[in-house]
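User: I'm curious whether this sequence folds into something compact or stays loose and floppy. Could you predict its structure so I can see for myself?
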Amino acid sequence: MPPLYPEIEPYRTFRLPVSELHELHVEEAGNPEGKPVIFFHGGPGAGLSPIHRRFFDPAFWRIVLFDQRGCGKSTPLGEIRENTTWNLVADTERIRERLGIEKWLVFGGSWGSTLALAYAESHPERTQGLILRGIFLGRRTEIDWTFSDGCRRIYPDGWEAFVERLSPRERGDVIHAYLRRLTGPEEEVRRDAALAWNLWEERASHLLPNLEPVKEEDVPKEIALARIEAHYFVNDSFFDPDDQLLRDLGRIRHLPADIIQGRYDLVCPAQSAWELHRAWPGSRLVFVRDAGHAADEPGISSALVEATEEFKSKV
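Assistant: Here's the prediction. I'll summarize afterward.
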């Protein structure tokens, strides 16, 4: 299995105002003259991590990464106003135009796979191909799996801890109940809700969870992640209710695509990856048999590096 590439630092970072409210943090790494690839991080709300640069051969790829609105080093942190899927698609085009890139490979995992599909379907003429991991199609059924009546059957103990702070009535709509706490006036309530929300998702993200305590300096980003996720999920990720991403797949069906899916992914179960692959006959679907959801699981990360290597001949 191919290993991750060694750690690298960006060769360039810059700030990009995208509205009167939001300013993005953008990075470039790898080869300034290389083939361009745009990386979409997960969440929504998670932000960038150094591992995200390590899926790509830095001698070949010009790696473009950015913290989406309200995430990571973008400001204001945790802001949900003017923060929709289609704002992020438009931001991506602003980045491409700013960098003078004509076309690029599109890469995204988890929520990043959702945004990658939304971007590519909106701008197929700017997309050379897609590498997608842990497929989430933004559907209510997928959200209900995680926050209503799916994953709780695998982790009943974790679910009980997740909903213990909610009243019996609130447990009928967990996401709205948490969003009220995450946007409320009391700092301690926001903190408690965010840590509980993220712990629930983290518990289900790895085949073998290793839950680390949250460092105090990371709490603001934890709150931002949970708040933005709840905001998006309350709004069905800003998609039409008729399977929009699958409905519009014809716009990109001619493009090459690799779909990497952990067989035991409990955050984004394999059904969505299977449906996407079946609707996209030219795509390649890889089930990683000993992995869950997270990109840093060895089988997942190796499959992603293998995909970027194979795409060298396709771009």
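Summary: The first helix runs from residue 85 to 99. The CA atoms of residues 265 and 292 lie 4 Å apart.
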